[in-house]
Design a protein that fits this description.
Blueprint (H helix, E strand, L loop, with lengths): L12 E2 L6 E3 L6 E3 L6 E3 L6 E3 L6 E3 L6 E3 L6 E3 L6 E3 L6 E3 L21 E3 L6 E3 L6 E3 L6 E3 L6 E3 L6 E3 L6 E3 L6 E3 L6 E3 L6 E3 L6 E3 L6 E3 L6 E3 L6 E3 L12 E4 L5 E4 L8 E4 L7 E8 L5 E8 L5 E5 L11
Parallel strand pairs: 1-3, 2-4, 3-5, 4-6, 5-7, 6-8, 7-9, 8-10, 9-11, 10-12, 11-13, 12-14, 13-15, 14-16, 15-17, 16-18, 17-19, 18-20, 19-21, 20-22, 21-23, 22-24, 23-25, 24-26, 25-27, 26-30
Antiparallel strand pairs: 28-29, 29-30
């Protein structure tokens, strides 16, 4: 008859109402700080560390750890390993890969490379994914996130968020709110979501979409695909507004509203009319952009009241459609 070892679940070690300092061992520790401003260091092993109440510093150390900040403005450090970090209800500062040696004066950060899952929670949080391919979910509040190196996924959720993909081929989704989204280096996918967003592709051949709301999109360097989606949007192939000398594709779907292409480069850029749209007519003259700027060029008219203003182009034959 085969013998099966029972599954053993170790209880939490709990702190006190005071400001506690706790350092784990080489195994998988389970510690909950309770009240007080605690300093919790997991050391080795796959630990579960919870701050509970108070302004806590929680450091996973080595291992694949689960860190939960709880209430209070907490500092959460994932350390080495593929960690899951949950911020809690207040304004937290989260680093996916940094660690701090116990007993060190101030912060001595040891940088590791690992793939973390970070849930910032409610509050106005600041998150650094650092190294590795991270998944970052910002939650409610006006948050700031930096993906760092690696191919990261960052979701803004609610609030007016500031998100930087940094290095790597990142996917950024703003969610609800008026967000500022920066793809950074490499080939990024940046989706604005609901709200009035500002989107910057940065370097690389990026795919940008504004989503619902009146957005402003800048492709940056590279051959970018830029679509305002729904709402009245200003679209730039570059960051400077003067073009970047490469072929960008501006995408428009049925119901896109009144959009403006601000730096169309004749012979390079293309207009992509999806959903079988047809140009119903056009006019040449002076128009107002969605942001209120006075533009000179051509305006294309579509069924349902949609329109595309192309700044600086006065001849319909100078437009390239795909």
């Amino acid at each position: 008859m085969p013998f099966t070892l029972p599954t053993i679940s170790f209880p939490f070690i709990t702190g006190s109402i005071f400001n506690d300092t706790w350092i784990g061992g080489s195994g998988g520790d389970r510690y909950r700080g309770l009240a007080g401003n605690d300093r919790i260091f997991g050391f080795e092993g796959n630990d579960t560390l919870e701050g509970d109440e108070g302004r806590d510093t929680i450091d996973g150390g080595w291992g694949h750890d689960r860190l939960v900040g709880g209430t209070g403005d907490n500092l959460l450090l994932g350390g080495y390993g593929d960690d899951t970090i949950i911020g809690g209800s207040d304004n937290d500062l989260i680093y996916g890969d940094s660690s701090q040696l116990p007993g060190s004066p101030g912060f001595i950060n040891l940088i590791w490379s690992s793939n973390d899952r970070i849930f910032a929670g409610a509050g106005d949080d600041t998150v650094f994914g650092e190294y590795g391919d991270d998944d970052i979910y910002l939650g409610a509040g006006d948050d700031e996130a930096h993906g760092g190196s690696g191919d990261d996924f960052i979701f803004g959720d609610n609030g007016d968020d500031l998100i930087f993909g940094d290095a790597g081929a990142d996917e950024i989704q703003g969610g609800h709110g008026n967000d500022s989204l920066y793809g950074g280096a490499d080939q990024d996918l940046v989706l604005g979501g609901a709200g009035h967003d500002q989107i910057f592709g940065g370097q690389g051949n990026d795919n940008l979409s504004g989503g619902a709301g009146d957005d402003t999109l800048f492709g940056g360097q590279g051959q970018d695909v830029i679509g305002g989606s729904f709402g009245n949007d200003d679209l730039y192939g570059s960051d400077s507004g003067a073009g970047d000398g490469v072929a960008d594709r501006f995408v428009f779907e049925t119901g896109h509203g009144v959009d403006a292409v601000m730096d169309y480069e004749v012979g390079l850029d293309m207009l992509d009319l999806v959903d079988g749209q047809n140009v119903a007519g056009y006019s040449v003259g002076t128009f107002l952009s969605p942001s209120g700027a006075v533009l000179s060029g051509i305006e294309l008219h579509f069924a349902g009241g949609d329109a595309i203003i192309v700044q600086g182009v006065f001849d319909y034959d100078d437009l390239t459609f795909v």
